[in-house]
Model the fold of this input.
Amino acid sequence: MEIVVSGIRSTGNLHLGNYFGALRNFTRMQHENKCFFFIADYHSLTTHPTPSNLHENVRQVLAEYLACGIDPDVATIYLQSDVPEVTELYLLLNMIAYKGELERTTTFKEKVRNQPDNVNAGLLTYPVLMAADIIIHKANRVPVGKDQEPHLEITRKFARRFNNMYGTGFFPEPEAYNFGEKLVKIPGLDGTGKMGKSEGNGIFLSDDDKTIRKKVMRAVTDSGPTEPDQKVAEPIKNLFTIMQFVSDPATVKHFKEQYAACTIRYGDLKKQLAEDLVSFVAPIRESIAGISADRDYLRKVVRRGEEKARESASKTISDVRRIIGFKPF
Ligand code: TYM
Done:
């Protein structure tokens, strides 16, 4: 049995990228492994420092997480800020993390470009906190989308460095987990880049049918193929990619063949994609609504999760303190 840790920032509603990148196999995963699923509310402060919606966002993501099939009686689901052992490990890992390597992380450079007026130290040490999240449970597996590969690479580096520095094999080097499939990057509907929470290019698990249809019908396309079998242009390739996740293989094949034959009508493609997305999202959305209305249930889930997560985390932290050389007087 492997130990799995999965995290998600509480910076807004979850979208299809989150779902297919990290959450879709939860139901199965939790029965085959020891799973820790958490909400990275501390991480959200690196980009969203406002207190006004912090709690609401956490509650929403918690309900969405659960709606994706997590059973809190089987897996452990908790808030990062409920487990102080994580921040202790973060501090200790900061002593073996180097400024240069953190500055070179692609995700850091990207964030600096996105928010030049708020290049806080939390942003720089984001991967250190993420490494602490993962190795606090001595995880071997981390379900993530493609964009998180650099963070996993650096997590392995810290685990290895800790082991070498203290002459121990204490921490495993965790690997990404996608059930043998390649790591996923779900594109946005704007013709470029990946689907994101704040890029305005996403389909959210909480979107209603009308919103989904409207978003898909507005998705960026081009003027259409002009030669048979030409290379599929970026915005259309993106629509095909999304389709591969929510539509029948026969449907994807049908539209790809039409593209190759230059007979494709983007309006038809979008209508079909919109309907398939509606069928996919609707049951999840309904489940989110039911769960998020039940505050008592959410409270119980979080309390129980905190207990179980701290049990595992405090064991690791006391071992780590001993390995580093802290001794009781
Ligand atoms: P976050 O909240 O940005 O994303 C959560 C998960 O969703 C995946 N994801 C995507 N996958 C495919 N296509 C997309 N367009 C897409 N957008 C998002 C992400 O890869 C991620 O798996 N740093 C993490 C949060 C975190 C974490 C952790 C994750 C903190 N500590 C420990 C795992 C383990 C993040 O930014 O998540």
The first strand starts at residue 3 and ends at 9. The mean pLDDT is 96.
